DNA sequence: AAATTGAGGTTGTCTAGATGTCTGCACTAA
DNA sequence: TTAGTGCAGACATCTAGACAACCTCAATTT
């Protein structure tokens, strides 16, 4: 079996790496969440290595959050196998301009909260003023693509809280609120995703994410209308900037 | 010394945990970025444990991104990252436009290589054509800030390979090669840093990095002159985009 | 019936030793 | 002077064995 094809020749990968890869495949393809792995002794025997070497291999899976060890009980499969090998060629290129403008997005949360420090500052309102907090998930090819947290001053655009559903937010603002907006500033950084985001985006937590903070203002009055923080999977999304 | 106060009694923390905590304190208080730790053999002797146990302890610090191991050289202290995350105001904001334009940068490598697939395509030249490969490190506040890999067609701007030292590359192109260039496209993504980059940027490998690929063309002829891939620390750098 | 004990299985930690691989540097030879 | 060789130092991997800590569950005791 391929499980036993451990190459010990010089120049090849370390044994523990090969085993961890073999196990990773097996876990992702054959196991489901909650399943228990064979015991360390058993696996060590299967791969013909010392238990320490096997443990080293499993350490990698633990690191990646694929499995969890329980002292005295066994090693269990954690995440339902996510095929996050979407394929390097299916990468998306995202134009910054299209961020708030286009496509369908599903509303995950919609609530009214008091503006905290950063948000209040960006929107130029008093701390504690009520803002609409909107969290949306955008999908491409029926795969999660990015999550956006929108903050809008409630007083300016109450219609958003009342009746916005799932179309383009910017189109909604224009037609229903008579507000035309434009982007003034974007800040881009690389971060580790929060647990919730990682879950929504179906990405492992150790994979980097791209975060874009944007401020949109009303076209004429220059008054801040929307502050957005969008998170992408680092591996599938690339932002494209054309000056 | 407290370094030697390892409690092996039952009910106490595992030895390797105690050592990793002891080392963590030591590294954070007595060492600065770039310092080298005593060798594993030395530390094992100091704590009176087997080298494997000591390695296990150091593994923790590596996991946390406090130190980085270099095969054959030693174990080195990285720049503290948590401080940066807390002090949001010490972050750098980088204007995309200034990427190639400004400031001093140190040349890490300068060589002539044949253009491979991606580079050849971007520069619109035959695969195998000779290009100048320039790797530069830019510092801010005498801290490493970003690393750039530049690719320029040798035939177009041979002066760069012959005499470029450490000023602004774009200024050099303009004065010495009579080439004015402008940016046509930038692609931004989040990645895990390569080992070398992590070392140069003094960042842990599990911390995300920001990667910007840009293409610069000659202003008049639109001919590609420079393809640049720049890597930043995700936590200290933010790209600022103003439309 | 309920509580306790104990055996066996499983992961966790530690030691000991051997060998592989990478780096830097001194030395040598052309 | 320069290129190459070789060696020592340092981290990387692998094996072997032992015991500790923890969990489950059945057998025993109360």
Structure, explained:
The first copy, chain A, has a 6-stranded antiparallel beta sheet with strand order 4-5-6-9-8-7. Helix content of chain A is 26%, strand content 33%. With 243 residues, chain A is of the alpha+beta class. Chain A contains 7 helices and 10 strands. The first copy, chain A, has helices spanning 15-30, 40-47, 51-63, 117-123, 158-163, 169-176, 195-200, and strands spanning 67-70, 74-77, 92-95, 106-114, 130-140, 143-153, 181-191, 209-218, 224-233, 237-241. The first copy, chain A, folds into 2 domains: 3-77, Winged helix-like DNA-binding domain superfamily/Winged helix DNA-binding domain (Arc Repressor Mutant, subunit A); 82-241, Chorismate lyase, CATH 3.40.1410. In chain A, helix 1 (15-30) crosses helix 3. The interface between A and B is medium-sized, with 30 and 30 residues. The structure holds a DNA duplex (30 and 30 nucleotides).
On the 0-100 scale, what is the average pLDDT of chain A? 77
Task: State the secondary-structure class of chain A.
Answer: alpha+beta
Order of helices and strands of chain A: HHHEEEEHEEHHEHEEE
Tell me the CATH topology of the largest domain in chain A: Chorismate lyase
What's the topology here?
2 copies of one chain form a homodimer.
Chain A (H helix, E strand, L loop, with lengths): L14 H16 L9 H8 L3 H13 L3 E4 L3 E4 L14 E4 L10 E9 L2 H7 L6 E11 L2 E11 L4 H6 L5 H8 L4 E11 L3 H6 L8 E10 L5 E10 L3 E5 L2
Parallel strand pairs in A: 3-10
Antiparallel strand pairs in A: 1-2, 4-5, 5-6, 6-9, 7-8, 8-9
Helix pairs in contact in A: 1-3, 2-3
Chain A binds a DNA duplex (30 and 30 nucleotides) through α3.
């Amino acid at each position: 079996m391929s499980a036993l094809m451990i190459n010990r020749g010089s120049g090849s990968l370390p044994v523990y790496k090969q085993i961890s890869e073999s196990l990773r495949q097996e876990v992702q393809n054959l196991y489901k969440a909650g399943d228990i792995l064979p015991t360390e002794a058993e696996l060590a025997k299967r791969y013909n290595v010392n238990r320490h070497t096997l443990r080293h291999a499993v350490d990698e899976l633990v690191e990646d959050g694929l499995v969890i060890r329980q002292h005295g009980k066994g090693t269990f499969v954690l995440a339902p196998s996510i095929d996050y090998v979407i394929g390097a060629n299916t990468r998306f290129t995202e134009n910054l301009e299209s961020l708030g403008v286009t496509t369908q997005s599903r509303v995950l949360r919609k609530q009214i909260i008091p503006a905290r420090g950063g948000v209040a500052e960006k929107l130029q309102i008093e701390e504690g003023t009520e803002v609409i907090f909107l969290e949306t998930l955008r999908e491409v090819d029926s795969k999660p693509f990015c999550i956006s947290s929108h903050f809008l001053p409630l007083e300016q655009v109450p219609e958003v809280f009342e009746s916005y559903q799932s179309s383009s937010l910017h189109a909604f603002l224009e037609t229903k609120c008579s507000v035309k907006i434009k982007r003034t500033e974007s800040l881009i950084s690389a971060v580790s995703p929060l647990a919730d985001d990682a879950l929504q985006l179906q990405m492992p937590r150790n994979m980097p994410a791209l975060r874009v903070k944007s401020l949109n203002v009303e076209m004429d009055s220059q008054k801040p209308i929307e502050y957005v923080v969008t998170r992408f999977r680092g591996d599938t999304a690339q932002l494209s900037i054309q000056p």
